Amino acid sequence: MSYTKTDMLSHKIIEILKEHSDEKHPLTQQQICGYLEEKLGIKPNRKTVAQHLKSIIGDESCNVFIADNDNDDDDDKSDKKYITDIYYASDITAEEYEFLADSIIYSPMLPADYVRDLIKKINILSTGNTKSKEANLRETFHYGNKSVFLVIENIKEAMNTNRKLDVTISDYDKNGKLLTKSDPQSGIKLQRVMLSPYGIVMADGFYYLLASDVRYDDLRHFRIDKILKASICEEDGSMRDVKTLSNVPRDLKPVQYKNLNRYMLDGTVERIHINIKKKDISLVLDTFGNEFTCNKVIGNDDIYDVTFRANIQTAVRWAIANRKAVKLTSPKRAVDIVKEEISALSEMYGNQER
């Protein structure tokens, strides 16, 4: 008799193999029967299960195989009355699933309930135990803006139809709750602005909207999970041409904007010069990518002179954080900001008793 994956029992068997097996962790027929009894609440007939398994293994589209076993001299394992070492060959590896799941879990902008549901959806791509991911989720902080994807949907529709957005921006209280009205006690005030949206980028687990405020002539970014609501403007005309903005290159590429504004801080993009120890050059790659020029410093073989474009505030923060390896040399305004920050830190901590 031939069985297919549309057959109910075969379907359940394949589901079990998807959830509990891979090439490194095959199941025996007995283990499969145990899972069937647990899921269906009935004790399956082992002979019937064996017949279904042989049919499933014989159907290449099911992706179910018998693991190689060097200690088994029987070449035709599918003829055994009792089948062992059965596994489901997933379309992605366990490591690839781990990467996908971790990318979702460690995105703080996603509400915890949404993350939990999304992990359940991608579990069908994985084989083996996924309980560790649920444990990681319980230990990870997530903000609670449950309207974030509705906001993204409206942003995309506005971009597709070349319309402006009427946006209300809020912030989170100490419990991670997005406030729906201004709160003088906490100092959080709702802002309503009219924006021309141009793109969306992700940085450090957060989505940012690249847009221009109609009151100004430059490109700015807004953290999308802090947007309380975004409505498409039907009567206020189409969005501003991005080429008219003062701080945008000829062709705006959202990913390039993210690279230049690594920490998504306010500030202008300028040409940055630094001196850095040769052994620490990967610090530049980690933060600013590979678009930089690198020259030797005359008289010092251990130092590189490096030039790249970046948000000036990003460069300052990065230089201070990596002060043992990096010296910011220009522009002068950036050097002055570094000195001011160091002076302020010295004043803040200098008078503290040990």
Describe this structure in words.
This protein is α+β, with helices and mostly antiparallel strands. It has eleven helices and eleven strands. The chain has helices at 8-20, 29-40, 46-58, 94-105, 112-122, 131-138, 148-161, 254-260, 282-288, 312-321, 332-350; strands spanning 64-66, 86-88, 165-169, 191-203, 206-213, 220-223, 227-232, 269-277, 293-297, 300-311, 326-330. A five-stranded antiparallel sheet has the order 6-5-4-3-7. Helix 1 (8-20) packs across helix 3 (46-58), helix 4 packs antiparallel against helix 5 (112-122) and helix 10 (312-321) crosses helix 11 (332-350). The longest helix is centred in the C-terminal third of the chain and has 19 residues, at 332-350. The protein is extended, with a radius of gyration of 29 Å.
Outline of this structure?
The chain is an alpha+beta fold. The chain has helices at residues 8-20, 29-40, 46-58, 94-105, 112-122, 131-138, 148-161, 254-260, 282-288, 312-321, 332-350; strands at residues 64-66, 86-88, 165-169, 191-203, 206-213, 220-223, 227-232, 269-277, 293-297, 300-311, 326-330.
- Biggest sheet statistics: 5 strands, antiparallel
Q: Which structural category do the helix and sheet elements fall into?
A: alpha+beta
Bin the helical content.
Answer: 25-40%
Strand/helix succession = HHHEEHHHHEEEEEHEHEEHEH
Number of helices: 11
Q: What would you report as the Rg, rounded to the nearest angstrom?
A: 29 Å
Give the averaged pLDDT, no decimals. Answer: 85
Which residues form runs of ≥5 with pLDDT under 50? 74-81
Order of strands, widest sheet: 6-5-4-3-7
| Coarse shape | extended
Strand content: 15-25%
What is the number of strand segments?
Answer: 11
Question: How far is the N terminus from the C terminus?
Answer: 82 Å
